[in-house]
Amino acid sequence: MDLMQILGIIIPTAIFAAAPLILTALGGVFSERSGVVNIGLEGLMMMGAFIGAVFTFYGETWGFGSASPWFSFVMAILIGAIFSLLHAVASITFKADQVVSGVALNFLAAGLTIFLVKKIFDAGQTPYLNERIFKSDVPLLSDIPIIGPLLFGKAYVTSYVAIALAFVVWFIIFKTPFGLRLRAVGEHPMAADTMGVNVTKMRYIAVMLSGAFAGLGGAVYATSISGNFTHSTIAGQGFMALAAMIFGKWHPLGALGAALFFGLAQSLSITGQQIPLLKEIPHVFLLISPYVLTILALAGFVGRADAPKAIGKPYEKGKR
Amino acid sequence: MDYVIEMREIRKEFPGIVANDNVTLQVQKGEIHALLGENGAGKSTLMNVLFGLYQPEKGEIRVRGEKVDITDPNIANNLGIGMVHQHFMLVENFTVTENIILGQEPKNRGQVDIKKAAKKVEEISRQYGLRVDPYAKIEDISVGMQQRVEILKTLYRGADILILDEPTAVLTPQEIKELIQIMKRLIAEGKSIILITHKLKEIMEVCHRCTVIRRGKGIGTVDVANTNRDELASMMVGRDVSFTTEKEPGHPKQTVLEIKDLVVKDARGVSAVNDLSLSVRAGEIIGIAGVDGNGQSELIEAITGLRKSTSGSISLNGKEITNHKPRKVTEAGVGHIPQDRHKHGLVLDFSIGENMVLQTYYQEPFSKFNQLKISNIFDKAKALIEQFDVRTPSVHTEARALSGGNQQKAIIAREVDRSPDLLIAAQPTRGLDVGAIEFIHSKLIQERDANKAVLLISFELEEVMNVSDRIAVIYEGKIVAIVDPKEVTEQELGLLMAGSKQSEKGEE
Amino acid sequence: ACGSDDAGSGDTDKKEDDKFKVAMVTDTGGVDDKSFNQSAWEGLQEFGKENDLKEKEGYNYLQSNAQSDYRPNLNNLVRQGYDLVFGIGFLMQEDIQKVAEQQKDAQFALVDSVVELDNVASITFKEHQGSFLVGLVAGLQSKTNKIGFIGGVDSALIKKFENGFKAGVLTANPDAEVFVQYAGDFNDAAKGTTIAATFYGKGADVIYHAAGGTGSGVFTEAINRKKNGEDVWVIGVDRDQFAEGIYDKAENKSVTLTSMVKRVDTAVLEVSKQTKEGNFPGGEVVEFGLEEDGVGIAPTEDNVSEEALKMVKEYKEKIVAGDVEVPMTDDEFASFNK
Amino acid sequence: MLTSGYEPIKAYTALFSVIFTDSYFIGETVRQMTPLILSGLAVAFAFRTGLFNIGVEGQLLVGWLASVYVGIAVEGLPAFIHIPLAILAGALAGALWGLVPGYLKAKFMVHEVITTIMMNYVALHVTNSIIRSYLLAPGERTEEIQSSASLSSMFLQEITDFSRLHYGIVVAILGAIVMWYLLWKTTTGYELRAVGFNQHASNYAGINVSKNIILSMCISGAFAGVAGAMEGLGTYQYMTINAAFTGVGFDGIAVALLGANSAIGIILAAGLFGGLKIGALNMQAVAQVPPELITIVIALIIFFVASSYLVHWLRNRINRRGKI
Ligand SMILES: Nc1ncnc2c1ncn2[C@@H]1O[C@H](COP(=O)(O)OP(=O)(O)OP(=O)(O)O)[C@@H](O)[C@H]1O
Ligand SMILES: Nc1ncnc2c1ncn2[C@@H]1O[C@H](COP(=O)(O)OP(=O)(O)OP(=O)(O)O)[C@@H](O)[C@H]1O
Ligand SMILES: [Mg+2]
Ligand SMILES: [Mg+2]
């Protein structure tokens, strides 16, 4: 294979594989920026993938046609946000340990989704979806020589939606009053409280946004990559998104970069097995290369990451 | 009489303690009203009630004559009450402007209009003489400026009743002077101020009236014009307090600490200590006077091994300890009462007992063969708590739950008890009430009298002048003068600290 | 199992006890995994229907959530008095072995692997034979002469698929080149997509997957390419995967060229029947190949050319007759290819 | 359960009767508890020292492989040497796997959550590859370990009606005691906890912060490695090629936090988890309740317990007294 051919495979797959991670990591940014650890991203994504598959399927039967996946996205966003309320209620109102509550969310999603799949479809997984998000050329941009086909040819719209959302989230968090308050709540909730910012409300909104984004991430995975939902559709992607968020230093664009990096490393490790030179390397080294590369990147040039200061601590009025 | 604030018979309980027991506070329009009391007397609690952070069990609050129910800081804000908290409520990685506008951001097409906000901040800051850099990050600015940001926050919200909870505890004398000017300007504008402070001098200087609380109970309100420091102090503590520390002249002996041409870089890589030389002898207290940020922290950190020095030497009792690890320095005979008690001095989540052996846990009798001797540790802690009058429910109480004054006493107990040849005390009385200060000063002098060397770093001139046998003035990382406290005036010292060379005085 | 149920069950159970009861333990995929668990369960259901048994009483299954659940599940069924207990999947080999050693009176059957005990019947399939047939189709219908094989996890079992397939491809089309890659995972659809993208990118136009859930990514990639006008195919595995490959629902068009089906249902039904009749094949290895209709090519033949079908039929006969020996290991393939 | 159309009474009877009365299920419950206790200890130990170890899963896998390797490859040793040696191998392998995130955290401030997640995947692929390349036996697994390295016991199996109960539970309880002792009774524990709470103060007190971060991750990893050894030497007697994670490491997070990171609490929480998981299998068999329902129940229990102020209060009391 020549270089263009290799890049032509690696880059588009990197971008498409990254989309669910980007979205979910953005959700994580919201929650953790507000001071609520969200290890439940995995469960939220699972719920999103389930909703994505179920409502795309029903969308098809209800005659929504190719709009079915988009309909399912809306549902995944809504239900993801509602589902994340459990984490919000436990960890914000009842001041439960945020990690425990997140772990519980993961358990709950794992049980509930498959339980519901069995109830609804009388099978261990949803049927295969006919209406999915399919690849297409991005108009105009894909005509640019060399980089056009690489970056914009035969791509998923959802990938570009995810990338665009990263910028939107960046704008929200760093440019709007909402974002200012959100960050204040995550850094120093008492300061925010004394300035009239409702800490509880902000954290609820942030956690629900994380549910919405992770739900969307899961739904995108189901409708563009797996094509159905089974017990193993979401197996670790939520944790990778968590890692991307931390790798990206709790910054939306950082998370975007980290997710793309994961995607690139992943697709390189897979495609690498078909590249003559890399073929000679034992299989296992290619398999672990995305993870090792991430660790090296962190140790080499990313280094210290400062979490929001109040992260993990329930807010109690007047507590010192 | 018309009061702008009237708190009547306020009662506030915390589990196991009555923090405010029928306290009444009446503030007139346009006055600076002092609130005085020992550490833990209930001052902050009372103010937090007024600001809506706590709900009182009993009592009523009137603002400008109207009975109000302040259930939330928002309501207090709307009533024109602003509060500068004892522990600053600032988001460290936000800019000054962001901190000020938080919650009431000017908007422009959905976006925070930072430019407009910064302009407004500049306007207010000019109006009241509160110098700040609107675009600086809080973590990069001095405590004094942070304080001004806190005040600006309330003014930005249009507050005309300001509560300042111990605003001067962390300020340098210069900054205190500025703050006093600012307060005067504020009342001239018709605002009213409630000021909490342990510094009676400040009360005498700026306040009109003073309300005293002791152990949660209101003792009474006096006109400052008709009282004096001693009366206030005894009202607050319940006994007489002496202000000038009694001490015999010292008898300095051999040199204990010898610093030669020391250079230390700060976190940003700039030399904070520049060719500094200093020696401290056994049996004397050397006070280091200087404006914050002239290399004091870096000097202490270099001596104690918490920061590397780039050149020069430090020796203790004739032995090199330059760039030794903290533990080696400690074992060589250095005790250190750190400036930031929460960051360095204590593990807040450890019990007070465990904190008492922070420097010695690995030695006998507290452990043997890597095994802790728990009973020895807690016996020791009990003895120290007794000896230094640390007020804590038990040795098993988390250090976090103690009041600042008692936390400080615990640290001092730990460091003094090891009887180090050199005791470094950095701002040992910050935020403490006069009774506690008296106690700590007497401990430092006791150490000196036991032939130990003591190095005292303080921004408080009165403290330095009262306690030290010699005063070394630090300016831009150098000792610019060594003076005798008995022969120098506060004004002269102030000039030296500001870098003026003319009035050089003293032995060298 | 549990004491309470044994004690309190009363005479309804007694009646059932007289009847012949069968049950199975699934792996973590569950009974409706659209793969061999499901297929095995369909076999049991069929057996139940034929013998007028009640589900959950006469025939039953237990699902495992983790590898460590196999043994308690097997034990549980034995203790509930099932006359024959199936373990589905080679991962259960060790557990069947242990339980069978302990419960000498119970009868077991293991699918996809071998336990040499008198009370265990081992059921295996000649996947290489079925793979050979779909290999023929791939070899004939590839226009680029480049063909891909994606395995789930590199193992002796999946090697049977790979080698049989390669042998079929080369038999039909000696010029063809076969790309092989193992995903290292049966459940990573994203990986499946990437590997498929790589293969198609290198010019392959047919990919055979034996990779479970990872395979659904292969279909995703193929459908995408088909929609963008590329002429690519996927060959499904274990059951007829025509539906997975549908890209045009109205026209019922699928990227699934054909599938290699593995009739676990037939095998389960067959062994259940034999056992009921008192011919429990304990200690034996019952092999299901082309001859027994245990493996074969999927019934949906929409996309398979006449020529290919003819060749498939021809070779099926040769294999059954023993004229062609399909390789299953790397070594056998090497000598086959000589 | 009522709402989902299953018979609740029958189901709960099935759940509780077996985990308390049927010797087979008691045996299986205890067997299931064993690795859960150890992985819970691993998570808790790191937590106590201010670190979040999501890498228990990976550390468990390498520990499993190392112990099985020693169990297979070393011959002719008496059991009282061979077993400890194999467990030690598991502990060392786990510690090594914990060393990497610990070192990177201490020296480069790399967040341990990411590195431990990445190390999980590395462990999964590396152990599989080692088994496939060097230790493969029929059935996609290694050979069985020598009987001299086995923790399984005919006696325990017989009294529990052929459950897989093995002596690993003793190891797990010893592990809990070790954690408690190490944290609360030794100077090492004092240092580890101090560093976990306040690195600045620890540095001030002359404690080597980097060393303690690394040590903490190593000890945590060692507990996880021993959890793996329990699977290898006790439950299975071999190691299979794992297509996916075992889940024991992730369960350990819930066990640790449910047990308030205390030794006793972890044993109790592991008991609850183990009981529910084994009980779930029986609920399925007897009352046809799908096992997913138990996962849901477990999740709800975690939510409930985590949200309860009672636990909060207990936890504070236990912490404050510095015991257990
Ligand atoms: N959040 C709290 N929870 C429980 N008790 C508290 C709390 N805050 C204060 N207290 C109790 O109320 C009493 C008064 O505390 P307060 O902070 O008002 O003291 P203070 O007068 O401001 O002291 P200082 O001069 O040290 O600032 C304390 O002794 C303490 O026991
Ligand atoms: N969380 C808490 N629970 C119980 N009592 C508390 C708590 N926090 C503070 N206190 C009590 O509040 C009182 C005053 O605390 P505060 O922090 O105001 O002391 P302080 O001397 O002003 O400290 P600092 O010097 O740090 O300002 C103390 O008596 C302390 O015991
Ligand atoms: Mg106070
Ligand atoms: Mg104070």
Automatic annotation (TrEMBL), chain A:
Protein name, entry field: ABC transporter permease
InterPro entries xrefs: ABC_transp_permease
Keywords: Cell membrane, Membrane, Transmembrane, Transmembrane helix
PANTHER family: GUANOSINE ABC TRANSPORTER PERMEASE PROTEIN NUPQ, SUGAR ABC TRANSPORTER INTEGRAL MEMBRANE PROTEIN-RELATED
Origin species: Pseudalkalibacillus berkeleyi
Membrane topology, from the record: Multi-pass membrane protein
Cell location: Cell membrane
Transmembrane intervals: 6-29, 36-58, 70-92, 99-117, 155-174, 204-223, 281-303
Pfam families (alphabetical): BPD_transp_2
UniProtKB/TrEMBL annotation, chain B:
CDD domains: ABC_Carb_Monos_I, ABC_Carb_Monos_II
Database matches in InterPro entries: AAA+_ATPase, ABC_carbohydrate_import_ATPase, ABC_transporter-like_ATP-bd, ABC_transporter-like_CS, P-loop_NTPase
Superkingdom of source: Bacteria
UniProt organism field: Pseudalkalibacillus berkeleyi
Protein name listed in UniProt: ABC transporter ATP-binding protein
GO molecular function, one term: ATP binding
ABC transporter domain: residues covered: 5-240, 257-501
Keyword terms: ATP-binding, Nucleotide-binding
SUPFAM superfamilies the record matches: P-loop containing nucleoside triphosphate hydrolases
PROSITE patterns: ABC_TRANSPORTER_1, ABC_TRANSPORTER_2
Keyword ATP-binding: yes
Automatic annotation (TrEMBL), chain D:
Keywords: Cell membrane, Membrane, Transmembrane, Transmembrane helix
Transmembrane segments: 58-74, 80-100, 165-183, 213-236, 248-273, 293-314
Membrane-related topology note: Multi-pass membrane protein
Localisation per UniProt entry: Cell membrane
KW Transmembrane helix (keyword) present: yes
InterPro entries in the cross-refs: ABC_transp_permease (IPR001851)
PANTHER family documented for this protein: ABC TRANSPORTER, PERMEASE PROTEIN, GUANOSINE ABC TRANSPORTER PERMEASE PROTEIN NUPP
Record protein name field: ABC transporter permease
